[in-house]
Amino acid sequence: MSHSLNQLYRALGTSRQSVHQSRQRQALFDKELEMLIKEADLLKSEHPGCGVEKMYYTLQPKTMGRDKFCEIFLSLGYGVKKVKNYRRTTFPGHIRHPNLIEGMEVSRPFQVVQSDITYFDLNGRFHYLVFIIDVYTREVLGHQVSHHMRAEANLKALDIALKKMAFRPGGLIHHSDRGSQYGSDLYTRKLKKKGVHISMGLTATDNAYAERVNGIIKNEYLKLWNIGNEQDLRHKTARAVKHYNQRRKHRAFNMKFSPAEFYQNWLTLSTQDRPKVIIYTEGKPNLKGASSPNEIYPRTEPQAYICPME
To answer: How far apart are CA 36 and CA 55, in angstroms?
Structure first.
């Protein structure tokens, strides 16, 4: 019987060993696929807007490449439907400040933060989400959920962010649009008291980093969860922010790191190896010398250029 099988293998241009190895590889593939499906279900419960490519970089399978993984998980129904929306959430105030960050080189975390407001329709009633993000790491430093658009919600988010940055070096720039909330006396006084420089943009694209993160939290998380009331919205927004900060891989970091992971990795780098970025607004042409505008974390050189998109 063994001799007959060997003859068959030779006729097929293979060997018993290669057939055995192939079966082993298939068994490993099947076992990992079963495990990956369970992990993908868990990932989707935490990050329902996660696409299959981001799932690949998050789960990091051993037995299949990116294209094969995406093909399989798309066929299994793990794709994401995009949700389109628009509602104006800020109205220009009378306070004006110059745009201090256009073309600026940023070399560390907590050098430039951006803030923006987005809305969330909860049972026919609009609630408003305020986020403050660090431009360098893309981390959400402070957030607040409110059923109104008054500046108090922005102040609460700012207090959380400032507390997180309290032990950091000075020179912080706070950038936003020209919404009345950011130009309010209470808000600007708090920034000036803390020695924070105030920067404002003329258009939404001048605040594109914060706008992008707002969209991620709302469209990749909140809109895909069942949210019953305002308390539930607060809880799930905090949950989304935690997952976004700690687990969601970014194209800006070559899909290697989440914002928190990027920061921890940054701490291990020497000063000359720490990437620098130049801020420019979405839709503007690539700056001179920029080889890949989507990358904040360079493949070979310590200097990189980023655009506001992930």
So the answer is: 10
Q: Which two tokens stand for residue 113?
A: 């933060």
- Residue 62 in tokens: 């051993």
Phi, psi (5° rounding) for residue 92? -55, 135
Reading the block at residue 157, the tokens are 């988010």
For residues 208 and 281, the answer to whether their CB atoms sit within 8 Å is yes
Q: What are phi and psi of 246, to 5 degrees?
A: -100, -25
Name residue 126's amino acid.
F
Q: What is the DSSP letter of 120?
A: E
Say how far apart CA 294 and CA 307 lie, in whole Å. 6
| HSE, side-chain direction, 13 A CA sphere, residue 71 | 5
Place of tokens 């919600």: 153
What's the gap between Cα 260 and its chain centre? 10
Tell me the three state secondary structure of residue 224.
helix
Structure-block tokens of residue 146: 């409110």
What predicted TM-score, i.e. pTM, was given to this entire model? 0.66
Taking the C-alpha atoms of residue 27 and residue 41, their distance in angstroms, rounded to an integer, is: 22
Q: Are 108 and 91 in contact (CB under 8 A)?
A: no
**Residues 281, 102 contacting (CB under 8 angstroms):** yes
pLDDT tens, the chain, 310 aa long: 555 545 544 555 555 555 456 667 677 777 777 777 777 776 666 666 677 777 777 777 777 778 877 877 777 777 665 544 544 444 444 557 888 988 888 989 999 999 998 888 888 788 889 999 999 999 999 999 988 878 889 999 999 999 988 766 568 999 998 888 888 889 999 999 988 999 988 766 677 788 888 888 988 888 888 888 999 999 999 999 999 999 888 888 888 899 999 999 999 999 889 998 888 765 443 333 333 334 444 333 333 333 333 4
